[in-house]
Amino acid sequence: MDWLLQPDFNKPEFDHATWYFDGSLLDGKTIILRATGFGIAIVSSEGDLLAMARGAHRIGAAPRPPLRHGHYLRSSGIRR
């Protein structure tokens, strides 16, 4: 994962931030052609962009463990 805007989780703005995730899988039926990618945006309650990241899964790479933080799902994203 590449952070394009590095988060600083010590800032108080992150206490009420919303996390947005998006990902996609192309050519999922054909394993050798699969391409996956994702993006993450962390937005303050005032609407300011606090952090953003992107990433891609490489063929043959081990899957990463699931996100295990104190977040819960919301219809508009994940809120901390």
Instruction: Assign a percent range to the helix content.
Output: under 10%
Q: Cα distance, first to last residue?
A: 20 Å
Q: What shape does the CA trace take? A: elongated
Q: Could you tell me the radius of gyration in angstroms?
A: 15 Å
The computed structural class is mainly beta
| H/E series | EEEEEE
Which strand order spans the largest sheet, edge to edge or round the barrel?
1-4-3-2-6-5
Average pLDDT over all residues: 79
- Sheet with the most strands, sense and barrel status: 6 strands, antiparallel
- Helical segment tally? 0
Q: Based on DSSP secondary structure assignment, what is the total number of beta strands?
A: 6
What portion of residues belong to β-strands? over 45%
Q: Which ranges are low-confidence, i.e. pLDDT below 50, for 5 or more consecutive residues?
A: 69-76
